[in-house]
Amino acid sequence: MTPTFVMLEMLNPMLEVARAAKARGLRIVVVNNTPLQTEGPYAVPEGFVDELVTVDSWADPLEIEKVLLDVHRRHHVVGTYAGFEPVLPYDAVLRELAGLPHTGADDLRALLDKNQVRDRLREHGLTTLGSATLDEALTWTEWPWAGRAVLKPANGTGSALCFIVDGLDQLRKAVDTFDEVEIAHPLMREYITRTRGYVLEEEAKGELLSVESLVCKGEPHPIGLMGRYVLAKDPVVEMGFQFPYHHPRAAEIFEKAKDIHRVMGFHNGATQIEMMVPDEGPVELIDFNPRLAGTASMVLFGEAYDRPYAELLAALGLGEDIDFGFIGDTVRYGSEMILLPPPGLTRYESVDFPEPTFCHRRSRKPGDELSGRADQLDGIGMFVITAPTAAELHTAALRARRETRVNGDPLGDNENNVLAASPHIGRDLA
């Protein structure tokens, strides 16, 4: 049998991992719920996929495992890749069948449950934050913390259905709004809502950033920090990223990230750990994402290191050893920006991106109705921009946001386009 590389739910830049595997002469099998993309920067070329296996849903473990057993029986599987939360445990099952380095499926399910993650961190002395399941919190008669808390799905992604609450009355009001929030993306909706489980966590103070890592056969290798831009009027909403990102506590952050990887049992693949970093005091984990950072991070990392990042991901997928001597030797800075419609816009027609942005992604179709919310679920597009220095990048990225035209009009400085960021964003190392 021809050596085969299997992609599970291939979306957006994951195509580049499949390209890297194809360039090695491997057969490409894709197991997807959604149709292969036919337009945009990640349209799948006709004939590129050697076999497409379609599944009705990722919410039926018995049926999916039958599909994977059949794929394994019919193909010589030498590598796999997955980057969407609901499919990660199934990727682990296939990797175990193929004898590839992997994190156990049960460990991955625990990593995807924010209640279990917080409990394990507490068990190992890696968090000081209080937390509870929503069911437990709704039995309280008194608020247990001095400050606010964050309510979020136990199995979540993005900022969907996340609420900041400062007492029991606000908590109950937030719960009452659950059914009012429409999650348009069907796979995301199925993943977030299928368990109906929520976690309430004491709010961590500081700056939100992420540690981006590659984990090879049990050893974590942080490749850098990624800084955040947030919506000024609602800092829960992420609006953009900078990579690499220089922070004065970087060495300490990296060490804590390595400790968390080991405690959580993650063994092989890419990860994104979101951390809250105060000027002083404990660095706290906010989310452990056992996958590559979303959207265009693969492009950002490749631009920063001047190497095809997808080739590294394909090598990990194949279970190969990797020379990590390149880490820290970045040559360029990159930013990905997420765009919201201006206030009051209820119908989307077009978005036009300015030069020198690239890797454009339009997330709406002409004529789509807009909800009027200001969160990531109402995003209309994304772009990437790079520059030789962090300072130049910061200026260019904000200018490009203002110059982007939606329905023919520049976004300018409307309240859905005004961002906040750490003072370290846009700073170069001295």
From TrEMBL:
Keywords: ATP-binding, Ligase, Nucleotide-binding. It comes from the Bacteria. The keyword Nucleotidyltransferase does not apply. Residues 118-318 form the ATP-grasp domain. It comes from Streptomyces termitum. InterPro entries: ATP-dep_AA_Ligase, ATP-grasp. This is ATP-grasp domain-containing protein. One of its GO terms (molecular function) is ATP binding. PANTHER family: ATP-GRASP ENZYME FSQD, FUMIPYRROLE BIOSYNTHESIS PROTEIN C. Pfam families: ATP-grasp_4. Residues 405-430 are annotated as: Disordered. The lineage of its organism: Bacteria, Bacillati, Actinomycetota, Actinomycetes, Kitasatosporales. SUPFAM superfamilies: Glutathione synthetase ATP-binding domain-like (SSF56059).
